[in-house]
TrEMBL record:
This is ABC transporter permease. Keywords: Membrane, Transmembrane, Transmembrane helix, Transport. It is a multi-pass membrane protein. InterPro entries: ABC_perm_TupB-like (IPR049783), MetI-like (IPR000515), MetI-like_sf (IPR035906). The keyword Transmembrane applies.
Amino acid sequence: MNTFQESVLTALRLILSLDPLLLAIVGRSLAVSLSACALACALGMMAGAWLGVARFRGKPAVLTLLNTSLALPSVVVGLVVYLLLSHSGPLGFLGWLFSFKAMVMAQTILVLPFVTALVRQTVGDAESDHGEQLRSLGAGPFMRGLMLLWDERFTLITIVIAAFGRAVSEVGAVMVVGGNIDGYTRVMTTAIALETSKGDLPMAMALGLVLLAVVLLLNVLGALVRRWREHRDAGPANVGEAI
């Protein structure tokens, strides 16, 4: 039996035995990503809805900056947050560096442009289809944005799932601002990097398998939501054809 097979078998034993260290790292990673995803989605949906319906002179420049931020390397985001939270930084008084809050902050900043851009595109397309009717009823930009958000709520579910997948698989930013401290800021991605460098391949493999399972589950959920929405949209049309 080669090293790869031994590592996989040992990793599976760690997962099936519910190894306490493994569970602690997975739980912390999910808590950080869920918190960051919730904050990023709350802010990103509001900003994206407004950008989808608002008309102002500098909108093309704002959209260019937004699209550029989608390609920001995670380590750059981590560096910026590190400088903000360092003792000499403007937010150093918070004392968040190398803490759970710092990792949430970094992941929120990383995921926020992703959510904002997708929501802006979704609401913008809906505005093209229904915006004129809503404007004729006297709905202002803010109200139109909220109404279109509600109309596209099933698409937003897919965006939330994708945002969480983006957050939970991130490594660079949380490594920089969290410090990968055992028992405090060690999450799945940083633990995989550390355990691999130490030569503890079974633990790294176990964490990798859990991370892959989480990503697979997110993709399955996204596919189910899309299929359910297609079936729901096709329902009235099929009823009309039957009549």
